[in-house]
Amino acid sequence: MFESASLPHVMTKTEFEDAEARLREKLLDAQFEVADRKNAAVMVLVNGADGVGKGEIVNRLYDWLDDHFVETLSYGRPTDEERARPGAWRYWRDVPAKGRIGLVLGSWHHRLLRNRALGRLGRSAYEKALEESIRAEEMLRHEGVHLLKIWLHMDFAESRRRLKKLRQGNGALRRPAVVEWDEFDSARDIAKLAEAALEMIERTSTGDAPWAVVPAADPLYRDAAVGDLLLQTLTRAATDAPPSPRTLAIAAPANDLPKPSLVGALDLTQAADPASYSQELRALQQRLTEATTAKSFDSRGLVIVFEGNDAAGKGGAIRRVREALDPRRFRVHGVSAPTDEERARPYLWRFWRNVPRRGDVAIFDRSWYGRVLVERVEGFAATEDWMRAYQEINDFERELHDNGYVVMKFWLAISADEQLRRFQDREAKPFKRYKLTPEDWRNREKWALYEAAMTDMVDRTSSRHAPWTLVEANDKKFARLKTLKTIVDRLGTNGKA
Amino acid sequence: MFESASLPHVMTKTEFEDAEARLREKLLDAQFEVADRKNAAVMVLVNGADGVGKGEIVNRLYDWLDDHFVETLSYGRPTDEERARPGAWRYWRDVPAKGRIGLVLGSWHHRLLRNRALGRLGRSAYEKALEESIRAEEMLRHEGVHLLKIWLHMDFAESRRRLKKLRQGNGALRRPAVVEWDEFDSARDIAKLAEAALEMIERTSTGDAPWAVVPAADPLYRDAAVGDLLLQTLTRAATDAPPSPRTLAIAAPANDLPKPSLVGALDLTQAADPASYSQELRALQQRLTEATTAKSFDSRGLVIVFEGNDAAGKGGAIRRVREALDPRRFRVHGVSAPTDEERARPYLWRFWRNVPRRGDVAIFDRSWYGRVLVERVEGFAATEDWMRAYQEINDFERELHDNGYVVMKFWLAISADEQLRRFQDREAKPFKRYKLTPEDWRNREKWALYEAAMTDMVDRTSSRHAPWTLVEANDKKFARLKTLKTIVDRLGTNGKA
Predict the structure, then answer these.
(1) Quick one: which of B186, B209, B405, B409 could link to B301 by a disulfide (CB 3.0–4.6 Å)?
(2) Predicted-complex ipTM score
């Protein structure tokens, strides 16, 4: 990996100045193209040993670029707001908007590498984490975020010697420097670190996001090389060639073969006993209150998704859940038109924003499944985009599950006749009228398409860590009891499905 | 304050149901009006003793309203990200967007009251904090955020008895309840709390944001009363009557009297000695590095504002500061067009977002002063809006200062001739061309207006806690040295001006 990088790479001052003059103009042109088109964002991940010039590179890029569209994203010890959520949350929080450039110090690779070299991550956990980062980077690339992953190469031991020279008698630094590996001191520690770094670079160099290993012994060569790499990245981002859509794999029989509907298999005549309903409801709510206010819940968290036909009773079911929760520790998220800050970032960003702290509850009244339901049916998303969404959603939910959250998803199903009855009822009642829009009538005409999309969705995203529960909802009371019971039962097994 | 609220207020079930039927429809109508017009936000502050139904009120409002435009904002112990910033930051962070309703549990009043009753805030600090909250609420009102401050009234001792009944044998709650005052147990503690609450309600009931004291012994009356108050608030927010602009006070002689210009009084011929410039620059940068990497800086933080004429050299001055900083601990914020999330909130919100953690440095390349400079000169802001901005800005900066931050503001001044020379130079150099826009030429024609606005700005916002430094910038090197020297000198005195 580092073979040629270990050979001398040097530039004279004149050579550098020539290169710089050429670079600056082109970099600015490319940057403005990206800023104007707002089709893509760029993240420059600056990694490497200490003393190798990570900070100098950042400063140099600020000088070369228009710094109004550049931001530094740096990650040290996680804050408690970060620790209270999945590990990926803090990186998601900062994804730069399209048109902008993020300079990243202490990227996710740094954290992985550190934990591995310190022996905190075993072999298989390390490999799993590397795989996950590859998939996350692939998702970013598909969503218009171009990564430039730079490894500034210098022997770790040599870099330590350089760093030492930067320190004054009292240990203070003469110039600012990005010190990330201070705890690796002995030759043995450093060898471990170098070994883990090599492996990480091997394993996470993908076609979508390869590592660029830059020889860093000579600062002039180093800066010119990074500038050149960034220019290439910006140029590609400006023309925003999305990864060419692969020919889609075939995973289902042709459309004209009969496809049984999951909803068709439900017994929608099921109903709650009106006589015992209130009592059962109160008992289930009390169990939910106890489960979510127990000390042990502080390290968990609950993410509940409600999807279903229009007028299936999502609001009423959510209300019965909500009533049992501490109002300070839940939040209901409806889906509304994305803001421009959301549109400028990957699709899942708007949902990552709302991942609750551990110990809290987030209820999504419609959710990230919009992409494979309404966006698919209405043609708002291209086929390759909603096709890849299944895996991205599974990754997202697995991340939540692996971090202690209980993830539950409910599909509230009613028959077409029952829906018609409810629409008419809504038209008649003043304070329900606002719930009915012309769109609801239009959606109704696409009943079969939504049913097919829903069947695919459940087939592809009902996972062990985040199963779908189909709820027969022609009888509202039955639906509410079943929803609540499913939640408290799953919490009772500590979220294991 | 509580005289009439202590009398019995009760409603029969029938009375309540009549009232509710009327309320629900009107609440929804008013809410949709607010949501559609997006002119105003509403915050409902739910305060009062425990066991008095704070959580029940929140649930009731979710039922009555369309919950897609409602969010609960609740505040307990500050997180470390919150503690790392001024106390007001966490409330700013959550201000609901226009069109939305926030239900607030544990508002800033709660925290004040608690600290006062626990004896952590002395008399004068408490009164100062109350005054600050009044001014912040006034600002919110001017910016289209309508506050409904509800105090659910019940005797604290009675409320404790009610809460006890809610607990099971093992201490767990039978139903969720908002418990905020658990540490106040003895009769003496409770008396202190009641006394402090009374004073707070007296002192912070203003014309813009009065407290509504709601008798809470009867849940039906309580809910109907809150619903009615909210309906009034929503109706007012829907018609969005901004507080009638008071006749502006006269604070300056008439415009046709000669007004000396602050810039006119500067000696712009000052220049750095080219022979010693590099050495002086390096020495100052090293002092800045030392000051900002010292342990003691971790509890401070630095906020630097750069304003000045176009082409005055802000970018170059910022660069010399930046080079001396740890790239992980500073951020440069340019001003660009506000996003829709920013436009939906009070003016200062976009800057509060960027208040750095303590120990970090934020550099603003143009800033919140836009309101009293470009927005005033170009007529983008109404006179009463930029007139009140001076005080709001002073409050903002004082808040930063009181929380340990060093706030510094630089005006880089060049002569009109020097500007012309630099514009022409920019036109000639390829990688500087992007810095010159037609707007720069237009601004240049309004030189005198900008100079007057700048003079007013410095007169009104150069405070002891956040002084302006005027920098003679015809010679770029002189300007860079003066800027750096001012910063390191002020840091050397621990930020005392």
Answers:
(1) B405
(2) 0.83
